[in-house]
Write a structure and sequence with these properties.
With about 140 residues, this protein is α/β, with parallel strands linked by helices. The chain has 5 helices and 7 strands, in the order E-H-E-H-E-E-E-H-E-H-E-H. It is globular.
Length: about 140
């Protein structure tokens, strides 16, 4: 089954590159051009993974990552950074970004990173919907 991927990029050229990079049987990619469009798509699509640019006009990628994690806590997020806007590991940790990759990127390395993170996420147990009942005290052996 194809992994649903939401890519958020304000550059038309990079949106095309991301669309081509993930135009495979392994991925079902949807590309958004703005944070508002991305949040709408997030609610409708419920993607397995989100890629987002660190610079998105008035909203930066870190703020959008925080919003994604708030709306869909288990969804992995990879931030796309650049030489002009390098990844900030402190801010990334604050907003719970799962990974980053620098642009320009090698498309195979990008796909490999996304597949690895998706596999790790798929292996994680789902969080319980409600707290588990307290365990009964153990009985002593006779």
């Amino acid at each position: 089954m194809a992994k649903k991927l939401l890519a958020v990029e304000d550059s038309k050229t990079m949106r095309k590159v991301l669309g081509i990079t993930f135009a495979t049987d392994e991925f079902d990619a949807v590309v958004a051009e703005s944070p508002q469009q991305a949040l709408s798509q997030l609610d409708q699509l419920r993607p397995d993974m989100v890629l987002l640019d660190v610079t998105l006009g008035e909203t930066n990628g870190y703020d959008l990552c925080r919003q994604v994690k708030s709306r869909a806590p288990g969804t992995p997020v990879i931030i796309l950074s650049s030489r002009q806007q390098p990844y900030d590991p402190v801010r990334g940790a604050e907003v719970q970004a799962d990974d980053f990759i620098d642009k320009p990127f090698d498309t195979q390395q990008m796909r490999d990173k996304v597949k690895k993170l998706a596999a790790q996420n798929g292996a994680r147990p789902a969080a319980p919907a409600r707290p588990a009942a307290a365990a009964a005290p153990a009985r002593p052996a006779p």
